[in-house]
């Protein structure tokens, strides 16, 4: 294995919070606010079967932060993921990057189109 490959394996996945802020035009304070909102939302998760709590937050263009958490039911594995709950709550204002954090606090950033590449809207429906 080359030195470059070893260095790439040692580098953590995701962006630092500072890089995330710069890449997506967010302030470091906004990224911190989103991270804290994810952690807070995670505490609201209903996951009695998997015990795997997930929180999600979205910063709307008006500055409001929308939170969501995963919800499981007895028809496991049927449940609702945190991202879906949050997007469903904020569906009218999604002109923003979606930040996802892992258990180590590392983030991945996606657009709604990247997260839901096969989604469709009214233009895809048949009209009479």
Put the structure in a nutshell.
The chain has helices spanning 3-10, 17-24, 28-42, 82-90, 112-115, and strands at residues 55-59, 65-69, 71-72, 79-80, 98-101, 107-110. The protein is an alpha+beta fold and 128 residues long.
Please describe what this structure looks like:
The protein has five helices and six strands; from the N terminus they run αααββββαββα. With 128 residues, it is α+β, with helices and mostly antiparallel strands. The chain has a domain of 75 residues: Cytidine Deaminase, domain 2 (3-Layer(aba) Sandwich), CATH 3.40.140. A hairpin with a 6-residue loop joins strand 3 and strand 4. Helix 2 packs across helix 3. The longest helix is centred in the N-terminal third of the chain and has 15 residues. The chain is globular. One of its GO terms (molecular function) is zinc ion binding. This is CMP/dCMP-type deaminase domain-containing protein.
């Amino acid at each position: 294995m080359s030195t470059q490959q070893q260095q790439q394996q040692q580098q953590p996945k995701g962006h630092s919070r500072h890089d995330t802020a710069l890449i997506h035009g967010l302030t470091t304070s906004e990224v911190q606010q989103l991270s804290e909102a994810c952690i807070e939302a995670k505490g609201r998760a209903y996951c009695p079967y998997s015990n795997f709590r997930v929180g999600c937050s979205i910063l709307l263009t008006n500055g409001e932060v929308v939170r969501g958490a995963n919800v499981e039911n007895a028809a496991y594995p049927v449940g609702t993921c945190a991202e879906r709950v949050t997007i469903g709550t904020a569906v009218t204002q999604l002109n923003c990057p979606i930040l996802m954090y892992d258990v180590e606090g590392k983030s991945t950033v996606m657009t709604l189109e990247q997260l839901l590449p096969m989604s469709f809207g009214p233009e895809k429906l048949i009209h009479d």
